[in-house]
Amino acid sequence: MSSRALSILFLFVASLAVGVAVGEWFFHLFLRAVPPVALSDFNTQSSRIAHWLYGAGVGLILFAWGLIGMMIGRTTKRKSKTAS
Q: pTM of the predicted model, to two decimals?
């Protein structure tokens, strides 16, 4: 594998890990905000899955932003080399 493919793969895995961590953090905030009397096991587990999916979506958005930043950095580097 090339270094470019490895960096993109690392960016993807790291973005998803950060996104799922954000989802887990929001799940714990949800547990603090909702009284235990109002929660059932089903609500708790379905909320955890929903928060993980939300986090995965955040991770995909972070990955897209990272790719856009990498492309912009690469094009500005090429423009600065041709200008000099």
A: 0.80
Give 61's contacts (C-beta < 8 A, 6+ positions apart): 19
Task: Indicate whether 60 pLDDT > 90.
Answer: yes
Q: In the chain, helix, strand, coil percent, each to 5?
A: 90, 0, 10
d(CA 45, CA 51): 10
What are the structural domain ranges in the chain? Answer: 3-83
pLDDT band at 38; cut points 50, 70, 90: confident
| Cα torsion 67, 58, 60, 20: sign | positive
**Burial of 15: CB neighbours in 10 Å, binned 0-12, 13-18, 19+:** buried
Q: Distance between alpha carbon 25 and the CA centroid of its chain, in Å?
A: 13
Are 57 and 13 contacting, i.e. CB atoms less than 8 angstroms apart?
Answer: no
